[in-house]
Amino acid sequence: DAGADNDLYINQAVVFIEDAIQYRSINHRVDSKSLWLYRWYYSRTCQWILSLTITVILALAFVEEPSSLTVTSDVRYRLPAWNPPCGLTESVELLCFLVFVADVSVKSYLIGWKEFWKNKWLMAYILTLIVSLTDWIVSLSFSCTVSLRIRRILRPFFLLQNSSMMKKTLKSINSTLPEMASVVLLLALHLSLFTMFAMLLFARTKDNQQDKEWVVYFRNLPDSLTSLLVLLTAANNPDVMIPAYSKNRAYSIFFILFTVLGNLFLMNLLTAIIYNQFRGYLLKSVQSSLFRRRLGIRAAFEVLSTLKETPASAQQSYVSAGALQQVLQKAEMDSRCKQAILRSLKMCSCDQLSAAQFQKLFEELDKDAIKQHPPSPEYQSHFMQKLQFAFGHPYFGYLGNVVALANIISICVVLVMDADKQPSERDDFFLGAINCFFILYYLLEMLLKILAMGLRRYLSYPSNRFDGLLTVILLILEISTFAVYGFPHPGWRPEFMGLLSLWDMVRLVNMLIVFRFLRIIPNMKFMALVVTTLLDLVKNLRAFAGILVVVFYAFAITGIMLFKGAVVPLGNNSIIYFKGKCDFMVISAHFQAEGVHCLLYLLSVNLICRWAKIYFVAWWLISSVIWVNLFVALLLENFIHKWDRRCHRESLSDIEYQRTVELMFRDVLEEPTEEELMEKLHQHPHLQLCR
Amino acid sequence: DAGADNDLYINQAVVFIEDAIQYRSINHRVDSKSLWLYRWYYSRTCQWILSLTITVILALAFVEEPSSLTVTSDVRYRLPAWNPPCGLTESVELLCFLVFVADVSVKSYLIGWKEFWKNKWLMAYILTLIVSLTDWIVSLSFSCTVSLRIRRILRPFFLLQNSSMMKKTLKSINSTLPEMASVVLLLALHLSLFTMFAMLLFARTKDNQQDKEWVVYFRNLPDSLTSLLVLLTAANNPDVMIPAYSKNRAYSIFFILFTVLGNLFLMNLLTAIIYNQFRGYLLKSVQSSLFRRRLGIRAAFEVLSTLKETPASAQQSYVSAGALQQVLQKAEMDSRCKQAILRSLKMCSCDQLSAAQFQKLFEELDKDAIKQHPPSPEYQSHFMQKLQFAFGHPYFGYLGNVVALANIISICVVLVMDADKQPSERDDFFLGAINCFFILYYLLEMLLKILAMGLRRYLSYPSNRFDGLLTVILLILEISTFAVYGFPHPGWRPEFMGLLSLWDMVRLVNMLIVFRFLRIIPNMKFMALVVTTLLDLVKNLRAFAGILVVVFYAFAITGIMLFKGAVVPLGNNSIIYFKGKCDFMVISAHFQAEGVHCLLYLLSVNLICRWAKIYFVAWWLISSVIWVNLFVALLLENFIHKWDRRCHRESLSDIEYQRTVELMFRDVLEEPTEEELMEKLHQHPHLQLCR
To answer: Where in this chain does the entry annotate a coiled-coil region (chains A, B) (predicted)?
Structure first.
């Protein structure tokens, strides 16, 4: 009947508007029950549970058996890690798998059978789940004694498939692969030709004194290849050439040629290629988001225009304002936007909305949220007004910066003077007294600023929040120090008391003061630009960081499985060193370029076996070469965009924009045309449009 | 009188045309004598003498007293370097100075007194000469015993001032400095804040076992600063964090934060800034070259139009074709261009040329030199035609590549098998026989190709020239081997005879074969693109390389002066190591990033004094940070340009363009307008145009 139909159409419109807001695809089932399921699936609770499950299953690696989560990394000192009994982590895992099974079923149902077969990600998801569950059963049936557990390597896939941004980025990276492969091939050719050259050049001679180079670096093909590969990462440079160089300087020409060609040209060529490929990446992704938004809004319009209450017009379809109001009431969206749209709907005062008008109403969604600071309080007294002027003036802020700098310098002086003193000789009086004075000044500054600006205005500036928070923490620390150790006086050197020693307290206070000094950043124009660029970059990098986590997780798990027990405490320094690094990789895997650097150095001195070599070379290629280059490409892209538009913005710098990637590109984006939108809508697998 | 005037005008036009061809400025004196001097000064001989002088004065450093030009760099073994007697190098130097004095006088005279005062480069040139001559006199009057000789550091200036491209590049770099300084400031802030943090974090404790980190890396302010600075170059990573890390894993957070912020963000920000500044650099420089060319041609036109024989026209000025022919006859230019211009002049068959026609005639100068390969010989016999078809076919070339690959593989196999054998056990028969066979094949291939293509066509392809030359060298080597050692037979292991042992001969042959394998490059599309980009880059980089040479020369000379005798052979390995590097810097200074890397590592272990630290840090900043970033910026610029236009060119790939930077940008260049040209011409200090 008509009423139920109307309800359905309203619900469809609500879901399409929500899709538009979240930049989601609208290709899902649109019958009543599916819509309810769809809204429930994308509700905050559901998505939060899913994220939690992914976090839990990834975090399991830290408590599972060959984990290395101990305070020290030194194999000689560390206590054995806690081993959970068999079945504990496994049951948590099973719970997670059940959530994933529910997730994949709902997702598959919602996009429909026909679409399901086209969606490779969903198929892979199901396959991963099947493999993981099988592996889980095998593992339990052998009561956890099987050390090879494939499901652990597969885990990051769950993270990957849950983020559309990461999937998009991966696709982008994938399209760059052929060109990257060409450069890597070129590098391989470079490496192999030079290896042959090196083996011919540094061949074994009759005089054993003369062939040090051969003995250490070029004894056979794998050795030579490794030496030169490591030279490419610059880890063993110039050690590798010293023996030859001290025999004859001319040998250095070989190494110079190799490094210049390999490091300067080919490696940077990789940067150029990746940058070239990613130049349009951000723009393209923002463009496709825009298309999704326009499509969702258009779909809502089309659905609403088929409502029975609308008078059928031959030429154009219209939507009644009442229906739209109903939809807006039901849709979940930012309340500021909702109010703005309702307001403009009232202002327009037209009963029937055309498609263009409908789209125009929703342009509010694309607009900057201009942040208005609350007004300063208005004081009646003349004296208070003067005070307000004085302490609200920027110069008062500059004075604060100068005081902070003075504090930093005083700490620095004390540090230099005390550098070589024994802890027992140290006198904390001077530093204690000075810090006490400075913290009092900070407190005063904060209070005066609050007086001048009012608490709400004060808190609306991020720099003030940063400042105030640190001041309060410093105050609390200082008060608790005095409560425990009394006021500072000459020879103030009490013994250890309470949670922290006085010395630790003073150090903590000093660190916070150094950290507080960062408040000067917004006052320096170039620095502010750099910092905002970096913050933007961090936002845009989330997808890349996610992929990096996926890769590192897989590598770390593989590494743990490969090298479990391979490193034993021999009392030998270099072995411990290596152990330090191996752990290191697991925990702070993103510490990449540098960590690998040394691993490769170890490669060159043949501490580890051939398999480990292949593992580390793969890791170096992915983490150091490809990821760092991707990062540089994104940084270049972001920075150049920012730089070009710095001039535009400077006049508006008072207003703080909550800038998003979408807004950054707004003036270069192309609006999708009516035809494109309608064509896409007609391709919708579940929605039958009447016309 | 009119005849002499006409001669003068013709000569002026000739010089202006030559200026246009060489992209030189036309702001010089234009009277008859000056013109003669100008043409003489810019004649090949004169410029060649000047370049030679610059080379000689720069090369003097290799033979002057504290030089290190010996075969080995090991201080324990090397013989004392040859010390020229006092007065020898000095007299060569004086000769050079005299040439420079002549150079600067001619240059100053030619641009005229008024212009001279505006030209800071010329003033600096004169100043440098005065300082150098004074220093020379002081040095000689103390009979070469003064070790501080400023003139040696000033020498690279002579190289710098002689190249307009280098001066332009320097100006460009100069304009980037403020922004680079901002980032360097940011880096300094980053470094100092983290140093304070580190000193507070890794303070001395009561337990001596626990403060290894403090003892080794953070003992006092300079130590801490150095440790973190070196961490920024990644040279001492992760050594610097191992003691702290093995105490508590959480300490690694500090180092990770420092490295991510410093290395990933700030360092790459520097790349972004430099790239952003240099994005337009090439285009701008090419644009200004184009302006100079058009200006020179226009000036020639204006001068010729005042010739008496031309009928004075009120509206427009014209140039007679005869006068132009006379000018072209006299001007020194590429004969191909000259012929083409004369041909189009005849074709146009107009007696009077307007300014636009005049410019159009000279457009031939901007055109690509399309290289036409000579035709293949036409054989009468049917059999020969078949042969020609077979051996001229690309597949024959591919076969050659396959054979070369087979040869490489066979050498590789022998190398792997012989890797661990003693020289006395080695049997050269197998390799000798195989190489003999392959070289015969190469000879045959070359001859057949010459047969099919004809000698002239064969030689017109660079890949064939490369191929043929190597084949001939290989043949000569092989023949001389057989002449000395006889034909290979099992157990072919003759003793040392003649200039080279058999083993050395075989090695040399093998290296050449490996080198010859590079002939496959043009057959692989992507590789060909990369190689042409690199070759282009090398052309565009000449100016940068020149500046690099200047900087390195100054650094090397300063280094020699600072550290002369500072490193003595102690029998201690690390000292010799350092010595190895110090020399190294002098000779192969462009081996920068890597060399410094280790020097900085040495810094961190406090092998060298504070002055050396400052010297090396400055060197690292300039050579590694700034220069590498400049290089990356240029590479990105070049590569992206090439990449974008790859599609256009692909259809034309058969024709080999002699591509220059000017041609690369031709479709984006703007032609200067008539008004700009005339305005510039009227500002000419020496040329009085009648109208």
So the answer is: none
